[in-house]
Write a structure and sequence with these properties.
- The longest helix has 35 residues, at 38-72.
- By secondary structure, the chain is an all-alpha fold.
- The chain has helices spanning 4-15, 17-29, 38-72, 77-98, 101-126, 139-143.
- The protein has six helices and no strands.
- Helices cover 75% and strands 0% of the residues.
- The chain folds into two domains: 1-36; 50-143.
- The chain starts with a helix and ends in an 8-residue tail after the last helix.
- α1 (4-15) packs antiparallel against α2 and α3 packs antiparallel against α4.
Length: 151
């Protein structure tokens, strides 16, 4: 037998997902678990986890891009070093605010993949092919607010 309240919640999800979230939160707070739309709740939680992972990947990629440009794009150094340093600070601040032990381990596992994406970007942006093929930075350096490569 289908719970009518659950069915109504499923229809609400199709019409207005924000109202669905508000109603789901209310049901959770009231411990009315039998009325939850579990199928869509599971999907939303999986999507939330994916979004968080994508965000930390994106922030780390931006840090790597700006560090590479700061360190290796000599012809643009004078013009762009302040911008690069401020962007590195900003992205580190955002990433460190989201960092958990699980995210740290995850980023360590995929650092090579993220670096390859960053490398391709900076090569296209700068027109240079002199960047290191392997990541010259450790994850600890990438996250350290005070660390910059020696120039």
């Amino acid at each position: 037998m289908i719970n009518t309240k659950t069915h109504n919640l499923q229809r609400l999800y199709e019409i207005d997902d924000y109202l669905w979230i508000e109603e789901t939160v209310r049901l959770l707070k009231e411990k009315r678990f039998e009325e939850l739309d579990l199928e869509n709740l599971i999907e939303e939680l999986e999507d939330l986890g994916s979004e968080k992972r994508h965000k930390v990947e994106s922030l780390l990629k931006q840090i790597i891009c700006h560090l590479l440009l700061l360190e290796y794009w000599d012809t643009e150094y004078e013009r762009n070093y302040r911008h690069c340093r401020s962007e590195i600070f900003n992205f580190r601040d955002q990433l460190n605010g989201r960092m958990t032990t699980n995210f740290y381990q995850y980023l360590e596992e995929i650092l090579t993949k993220i670096y390859q994406k960053a490398l391709k970007y900076v090569q296209l942006k700068s027109g240079l092919d002199t960047f290191p093929q392997n990541c010259p930075y450790t994850l600890q350096q990438l996250l350290d607010e005070d660390w910059l490569p020696k120039k």
